[in-house]
Amino acid sequence: MHAIRLEAVSKQYDDGTTAVHELSLDVERGELVVLVGPSGCGKTTTMKMVNRLVEPTSGRALLDGEDVAALDRVQLRRRVGYVIQLGLFPHQKVRDNVATVPSLLGWDRRRTRTRVDELLELVGLPPGTYADRYPSQLSGGQRQRVGVARALAADPLVLLMDEPFSAVDPRARERLQTEFLRVQQELGTTVVLVTHDVDEAVRLGDRIAVLRDGGFLEQYADPATVLGSPATPFVAGFVGADRAVERLSVTPVDPAALQPYDGPVGASLPAGADFGQALALLLESPDGRVEILDCDGRRLGVLTPSALHAALRPTA
User: Fold this and answer.
1) Which of residues 247, 266, 294 is at a domain's end?
2) How many domains does the chain have?
3) Cα(276)–Cα(250) distance, rounded to whole angstroms?
4) Domain co-membership, 263 together with 192
5) Which of these three, 247, 272, 296, is where a domain ends?
6) Any bridge partners for residue 9, and if so which?
7) 61 - beta bridge partners?
8) Domain extent for 40
9) Gyration radius of the chain over CA positions
10) What's residue 310's pLDDT?
11) CATH number for the domain including 76?
12) Whole-angstrom Cα distance, residue 127 to residue 94?
């Protein structure tokens, strides 16, 4: 069963405009799906139909197999974490912000405190240092970490994130993205994230849904496929002309591209490394080769520049 399934959902407004045309996609449990596209393409509207902040004009949104239209709005939103750019209560300390949903659910004080402390540690904000601070005493990145911790506090079925890192200083953004990805993978949380930033979508997403103006879904695939095999001219233009190079960082080294091991090689990488990592080593390798090792250190084969050249070629 999918964590989220959208079945031909659409949203039309009273003035006759259509924010989202009939759109169908699914999100698997534990998957991080990114909705990306230009401003006004229906990304946020699509996401908000999952927790009924927006009611679809037609179609169904299913959460863990249940039609959200049949669920009580308040109970639904307590099961779905929601992170926006600026979402903390300024008059409450960090601990109380994170405890918001557990308190609404009636958790006892001991259970709530334990959960809050666990999550603050997980997002890199030790409770002994940060729990009693107010949001105004935190940096933008720290406030965003508190927002993530609050959304995860009651172990939601899914986490919805609307441009969560756009207000963070660019120098700290990538570090915060990496930290969030670590937390998401450690907890196995299902996430739907909205962004207009292709780089962020590629860095974070297991799959990317590319939308165009009017809420049309142009492509829904893993980052390597979106970058290397754009489904439409719109997708090709949106992800950019240098997509083949970006594709290296999200494309695992294909064992089929390896040549047999035939003697000592100066550089090595573990299986599962991406072509971007391999390229960095190849540029430094005196013999232009990198060996790939399995988890037990056994040699699987040798990667050469010709394999990288093949990886850079657009696929049909």
Assistant:
1) 247
2) 2
3) 8
4) no
5) 247
6) 23
7) 6
8) 4-247
9) 22
10) 62
11) 3.40.50.300
12) 9
Do 154 and 265 belong together in one domain?
no
Q: Based on the domain organization, do 302 and 167 belong to the same domain?
A: no
Residues 193 and 285 grouped into a single domain:
no
pLDDT-derived band at 221 (thresholds 50, 70, 90) equals: very high
Q: Are residues 175 and 258 in the same domain?
A: no
Which tokens go with 29? 């449990």
Residues 171 and 30 in one domain: yes
Task: Name the least confident of 75-79, 106-110, 202-206, 269-273.
Answer: 269-273
Q: Which of 124-133, 134-143, 229-238, 239-248 has the lowest mean pLDDT?
A: 239-248
Q: How is residue 87 written in tokens?
A: 């979402």
- Give CA separation, 136 vs 125, 146, 255, in Å: 15, 12, 51
| CA pair distance 235, 310, nearest whole angstrom | 22
Whether 73 and 204 map to the same domain: the answer is yes
Cα–Cα distance, 22 to 256 (Å, whole number): 39
Residues 6+ apart with CB under 8 A from 23: 6, 8, 9, 10, 42, 46, 59, 215, 216, 217
CATH of the domain at 269: 3.10.580.10
Q: pTM of the prediction? A: 0.79
Spell out the SS3 assignment of the chain.
CCCEEEEEEEEECCCCCEEEEEEEEEECCCCEEEEECCCCCCHHHHHHCCCCCCCCCEEEEEECCEEHHHCCHHHHHHHEEEECCCCCCCCCCHHHHHCHHHHHCCCCHHHHHHHHHHHHHHCCCCHHHHCCCCHHHCCHHHHHHHHHHHHHCCCCCEEEEECCCCCCCHHHHHHHHHHHHHHHHHHCCEEEEEECCHHHHHHHCCEEEEEECCCEEEEEECHHHHHHCCCCHHHHHHHCCCHHHHHHCCCECCHHHCECCCCCCCCEEECCCEHHHHHHHHHHCCCCCEEEECCCCCEEEEECHHHHHHHHCCCC
6 burial type by CB count under 10 A (0-12 exposed, 13-18 middle, 19+ buried) = buried
94 and 141 fall within a common domain: yes
